[in-house]
Amino acid sequence: MSFTWEGLVAGTDQASGRIVLLDPADTDWNGADAVRWSWAPDRAGGFDDSLIAAWGVPTDAKIRRCDAWGGLWLVATDSLGLAAVVPFPSADRKRWAANVGGNPHSAELLPNGNVAVASSTGGRVRLYASSQGPEADAYAEFALPGAHGLVWDPRRDVLWALGDDDLVALAVEGSDAEPVMRESSRTALPTRGGHDLQPVYGDADRLWVSTVGHVYQYVKSADAFVSDYPECREISRPHVKSVGNFRSGRVAGTVPKAGSLYEWTTDTVDFHGPPSKRVCEGAAFYKARIVYSDYE
Length: 296
Prior knowledge:
The chain is mainly β. It has helices spanning about 50, 230-235, and strands at about 10-15, 20, 35-40, 60-65, 70-80, 80-90, 95-100, 105-110, 115-120, 125-130, 140-145, 150-155, 160, 165-175, 180-190, 195-200, 205-210, 215-220, 225, 240-245, 250-255, 270, 275-280, 285-290. It has a single domain (about 10-290), classed as YVTN repeat-like/Quinoprotein amine dehydrogenase (Methylamine Dehydrogenase, Chain H), CATH 2.130.10.10. The chain contains 2 helices and 24 strands. The protein has a 4-stranded antiparallel beta sheet with strand order 3-2-1-24, with no helix packed on it. The longest helix has 4 residues, at about 50.
């Protein structure tokens, strides 16, 4: 299967229980060919019934290149407990998966093949030794109340983790088989309820950070949260569940919509710079991720 995937939008559709890829250039997201690619765990891909039962309310999806394994990989999480890695776009086998519990909200695939998972109600970040095989269950754990977001930083060799009240940089130490996480820095959020964490593509010194009330950019070199980015008035809204930008600078995000399947979902992805919307009727998106394999 071959198609142009960079710059597509990955929706975590909790209505269908799938990760779906949609093209922001398409004005109609409801046609028969609107979904360019989709995935959910199944037996054919090596997932047993216990893992399949831990899927159905997907919360995050990223596509990453992995130095250790080569090629492209989808890393995904689900509120019911599943964290999984499958090859992209074939998705024909389970590279690693586990029911990690604790309401997983985000995951990140590190260059060595280990997977970090942020679990919100579990109040923790775990770094699994997934590089050791599909069933690997060893992990390091770092307590972080309300853990919601993760981004690997290849320049600083740290894992950024977002919780209820803080943005934390975690140094990854130990070995691939026995990883260790150590707090390198911690910065209090300007408003509480950290929710989404993403790279600002085009500026490696910045991260997108959404809280219950606002959307900020975090400037790493200044250790400061700022609101000086373009279209801030439109982008910074309450209850932004996901936010990120295309390399062009255009921004996509999701906010809950009244009448959607859950109080945290929507059928609409909002775009800024210039403003527009895409509606996928019947969908219940929690997040809409702009698909790039680069960490920054």
